[in-house]
């Protein structure tokens, strides 16, 4: 059963009024595959384009997006994040890995905030580098893990 559909089959926001406040965290990841020409332009994790520093800008954009998730996704509750940490690394295969870890003390989960933060950071990497090539691919965005609420979760392939 979908949580955002009521008994009359209409879309609705989940009522969290009776739920207890608990400590909750979520870790989301986005992978951006870069073509060789973009990867070659990245040295020492310090990409700078005409638009500015790529990774630093993506971290700021992802954090801003995580804080505004309820404005982007209709049935998300507004949450005052206790923490949002985004890290970005490039590996030897020319992939950029973006991790977004969010934390909150609240009645509802924080997975969507982590997923939004990672997604917007990935989109920002694309935007910042598109002058070099449009052949970038945002290959995947997924929930790595979550804690708190009814149950904890860990993605089966997560390291």
Strands of the biggest beta sheet: in what spatial order? 4-5-1-6-7
The number of distinct helices, counting runs of at least 4 residues, comes to 4
Number of separate structural domains:
1
CATH architecture: 2-Layer Sandwich
> Based on helices, strands and strand pairing, what is the structural class?
alpha+beta
Radius of gyration: 17 Å
* Uncertain spans: none
Can you walk me through this structure?
The chain has a five-stranded antiparallel beta sheet. A two-stranded antiparallel sheet has the order 2-3. By secondary structure, it is of the alpha+beta class. It is elongated and about 55 Å long. The two termini are 30 Å apart. Helix 2 (54-67) packs antiparallel against helix 4 (111-129). The model has no long low-confidence stretch (mean pLDDT 88). The chain has one domain: Alpha-Beta Plaits. It contains four helices and seven strands, in the order βαββααββαββ. 27% of the residues lie in helices and 31% in strands. The protein has helices at residues 36-41, 54-67, 69-72, 111-129; strands at 22-33, 48-49, 52-53, 83-90, 95-106, 137-147, 153-154.
Fold topology:
Elements: E1 22-33, H1 36-41, E2 48-49, E3 52-53, H2 54-67, H3 69-72, E4 83-90, E5 95-106, H4 111-129, E6 137-147, E7 153-154
Antiparallel strand pairs: 1-5, 1-6, 2-3, 4-5, 6-7
Helix pairs in contact: 2-4
């Amino acid at each position: 059963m979908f949580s955002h559909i009521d008994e009359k089959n209409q879309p609705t926001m989940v009522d969290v009024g009776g739920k207890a406040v608990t400590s909750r965290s979520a870790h989301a990841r986005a992978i951006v595959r870069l073509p060789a020409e973009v990867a070659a332009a990245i040295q020492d994790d310090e990409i700078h384009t005409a638009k500015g520093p790529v990774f630093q800008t993506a971290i700021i954009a992802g954090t801003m997006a995580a804080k505004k998730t309820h404005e982007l996704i209709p049935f998300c509750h507004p949450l005052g994040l206790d923490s949002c940490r985004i890290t970005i690394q490039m590996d030897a295969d020319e992939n950029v890995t973006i991790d977004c870890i969010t934390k909150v003390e609240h009645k509802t989960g924080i997975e969507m905030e982590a997923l939004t933060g990672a997604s917007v950071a990935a989109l920002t990497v694309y935007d910042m580098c598109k002058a070099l090539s449009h052949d970038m691919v945002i290959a995947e965005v997924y929930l790595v893990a979550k804690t708190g609420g009814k149950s904890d979760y860990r993605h089966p392939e997560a390291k």
